[in-house]
Amino acid sequence: MRSSYIFTSESVSEGHPDKVCDRISDTIVDAFISAMPEARVACEALATTNRVVIAGEVRGPAELAENQGRLADLARQAIREIGYEQEGFHWRDCEVEVLLHPQSADIAQGVDAAGNKDEGAGDQGIMFGYACRETPELMPAPIYYAHKVLQLMAEARHAGTAPELQPDSKSQVTVEYRNGKPVRAPAIVVSTQHTNEMTSDEVREVVEPYIRKALPEEWIDDETVWHINPTGKFLIGGPDGDAGLTGRKIIVDTYGGAAPHGGGAFSGKDPTKVDRSAAYAARYLAKNVVAAEIAERCTIQLAYAIGVSEPLSVYVDLHGTGQVGEEEVEKAIRKSMSLSPRGIREQLDLNKPIYARTSSYGHFGRPPEADGGFSWERTDLVDRLKSEL
Question: Which residue out of 10, 14, 18, 119 is catalytically annotated?
Answer without folding.
Answer: 18
